[in-house]
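Sample intake sheet
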Amino acid sequence: MSEALRPLARPRLYEQVVQRLREHVADSGLGAGDRLPPERQLAERLGVSRASVKQAIVVLEVQGLVEVRHGGGTYLRRGRLDAEPVEELVARKRRLPDVLEAREALETKLAELAAERRTEDDLAEIDSALADMRAQIESGERGEAGDERFHAAVTAAAHSSMLAEFMRTIAAEIAESREESLRQPNRPSKSLAQHERIAEAIRDQQPRAAVTAMRRHLRTVSRVRLLSWDPDAED
């Protein structure tokens, strides 16, 4: 049977709601911090169920475009709702558990070796990366560049060419998991604090403490809204 005759995907109603919300934000001139209309009102105006509206809001929340305040409504986190296609979200949701598993396996060992092998130059780079991330967060950014630099500095401090090569092979997937984590509300400052604990264990040459701190950090990274989202929830 020709692949072209595979079953057609059934359109999801909530994807159409996402598109209408995107148009509404653009047409209304809403900006970061502004509140979207209540779910009940949106459902009535769009002629859909509240379940469809709720699922559309979840899609936007997963992408870090809105903040849902329980009992307080839904607020824009930026001035545009440039939502990526749902199928791309689904593909990332499927990839993410394997990426997080690989990160924990590799990066806990890297932290352990860094605590054993770090040099003064390594510590200087780790501290500089932390300073970068702190400055980025204080300026209102998520700190992704500083986060990436910190993990690269820990990898370098481990002085393991083979593990460093493994990390390079999944660099794109790691970047994806970093972005997913840091878009969670209040996550950047928490991530920075966890990095500081990892750095302290490496500085004090405490391998077991470094492993524990890195594992705790990566398990926090794994707590993202995307993994609890069900893209096939019925309208």
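Comment: The beta strands are 66-69, 73-76. The chain has a mean pLDDT of 93.
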